[in-house]
Amino acid sequence: MNFAVPPEAYARFMGRYAEPLAAVFASFVGVEARDKVLDVGCGPGALTAHLLSVGAVVVAIDPSPPFVDAIRVRFPDVDVRQGAAEELPYGTAAFDAAVAQLVVHFMTDPVVGVRQMARVTRRGGVVAACVWDGPTGALAPFWDAVHVMAPSVEDEALLSGAHEGHLTELFEAAGLRDVEEDSIAVDVVHPTFDEWWEPYTLGVGPAGAYFQQLDDEARARLEGVARERLGSGPFTVTATAWAARGTV
Predict the structure, then answer these.
(1) What is the rounded average pLDDT for all residues in the chain?
(2) Which CATH class name applies to 7-134+156-186+239-247?
């Protein structure tokens, strides 16, 4: 999946949801000041920024070189590395918590990735992740419009963790204890349709990849369907995610 995109494009596409979600997710996890936290799949830094703001000591990792470079510029004091969740380059029990916001569903092997997060977290520490709910997540309005045109197209609802209970299954398979799962949500107001729509044209993630493979006529039709459904704005997208935490 294409996340080798300019950090600015990702921020325009997903940052508008990821930034407010970070505060809700960190509260769910229970991160406190001075906790040493690993941000797995940090992207351009939505969760990293919030964790730093509450006084956590943050280490970050992401497979995308542009995102790693962006973190280094934005937070020069943060230890950030390029790498995948399935092969975390850290010692055992190095962190108080390991967290992954909007990442598990893109891991090549989610159980291995979560197991690695548990390995690098101290005994009694917390591993946590959140993933957009398929039918009601941040991208649901886009895929709803797609399904008006092409009902059989697979959206992101089938990705790992994107339905109730699946994160719990992954966490328990990875050996975590006392797993708790709940829904969390943020409301994002879009002042105009065009402000909401334009980031989907940038080629970010599965939605962007789907848009890019359409011809000009199909793109125009999809935009028209979405505009008809959502209106000219302002409108609010309530983005729901599933969040799980477990103890090492």
Answers:
(1) 94
(2) alpha beta
